[in-house]
Each structure stands twice: as structure tokens, then as C-alpha cells.
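hi! just following up on the protien thing from before. the input was this:
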Amino acid sequence: MTTLSQVPVRGGALTVARWGEPADGPPVLAIHGITANHLAWGLVAPLVTGPVVAPDLRGRGGSGSLPGPYGMAAHAADCVAVLDAAGIDRAVVVGHSMGGFVASVLAHRYPSRVARLVLVDGGTPLALPDGVGLEAALGPAVARLSMTFASAADYHDFWRRHPSFAVWNPAIESYVDYDLTGAAPRLRSGVNGDAVRADFVDLHEGAEPLAAYTALPPDTVFLRAERGMFDQPEGLYPDPAAIGLAVRTVPGTNHYTILLGEPGARAVADALA
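and the predicted 3d structure came back as:
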């Protein structure tokens, strides 16, 4: 069962989901990607033995109206507020995609709050070809931010056309439905485009994420999706050796289904155990 709460942070309140109460295992803080929300963890969380807390990061989901400044350090500070509100001294911290960069900065800035770190297809330096910006890098995930949709069904159709969501399931549907705001026939994503743009620059060019990566212990677990952002055969991280951590490639997954597909979710839950 999932419960939602509001956690006071700079500029307002952060929406936070919690699964697994009561629970036997260590607490987990789960941090989603650049245009995602807490339901990115909808398949993983029920497989974890301990309680899982997952915020909607500043500018996304139920936290969409929170103001900037954004960036990895700002998100890390928000995550500390989440741990404080949940009464969690130390957590296993897992981050997917941009969430991996937030998780690394959290571990670097607040080491006493992190029992162990798991990075999921994100958190280590990403090389972009010259001239490739936000729109080209993220494709439909960013294109939708300037679009409106007549109905939830239309939004489902939009996402079903994404190569990485060819295998649709209830977890994906819940994840995309939660993203919608407004009223038909002008539904739209609740993600703040300014937050996405600021965070994209920070994770690629910011000093904080690079310093955090440099400080990572070499035995930090990095779960690598076999396939890419658009389900292409080459993964987002094409060379596992270049990552420099304890890399485990998860077969048959792409950048999204490593969380939102059953095999990927089980691999992530196993790494958190």
C-alpha cells in the first residue's frame, strides 16, 4: 500500500510516497529521473523488504509547483528533509537516471545519511555528441512538456508510441496517469520545463555531480540497462568499463524498463536487498 505525505522544504512542500509499513528490512530512499515521478518505483517498491520513501522531486509530480533554484545539490537537500520527516537516520539510497546524480551528490554531501548507494542507469558522467541538446537527448519525454492532450487515453497513446514502452503494463499506465494535470481537453504534464532544463545542464556540466562521482567508492553498485533511452541496442552507457564502478548489466532492459518492467524491477530490488 502506498501513502502520500507532504514534507516542508524551501519554497513549499514536497510530495513523498511511502511503501511498506510496517517492514522488516532497512529503509530505502528512491530517487526518480529528470521528467519522472515517484511512481517510477511502482514495481520495485513492493519487492523491497524495507520501507521505501520516494519523493516527487522539486518541479515534478505533486511537487511541480515548487520553485527553483534546482540542480543536484538542491534535490539532495530536499531528500535530506524527506529522511528527517520519515525519522530515517540512514537509508539505502537508489537513484535512476538523473536520480543517480542526485543520489551521488547526497552521498557526497551527507555521507552520514547514506548506508549504501545503488545507481540505476545514471549518476556517472554522460558524454553527449556535439550539438545534442535537451530535446534531442530526451526526445518525447521533453516534447510532451509543451503539448496538451484531450484525454488520458490520448496520453497513453502518446507514450505507447515511445519505443521503450512497447510492452505496456499497469505500472507504466499509473506512472503516466499521475503525470497528468489540468482538465480535458487540455490535459498536460505536471513537469516544470524550467526545472528540467536547469537540471539537464547541472548533471552534464555542474561541478557538484562530477565531484560526487569522483568520490564514489569503486564497489558502488551500478545497474546498467542493456538497451538505450529509445530501446536502441546500444545502452545509454555503451561501455561498462568506462563507468568505473561495480557494473551489473541487466539483460533485456532499456533505460525505462529497468524500473518499469518485471525483470528490471526484480534486478533493482535484488541489488537493494
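The domain at 2-129+192-272 is CATH 3.40.50.1820 (Rossmann fold).
The radius of gyration is 17 Å.
cheers
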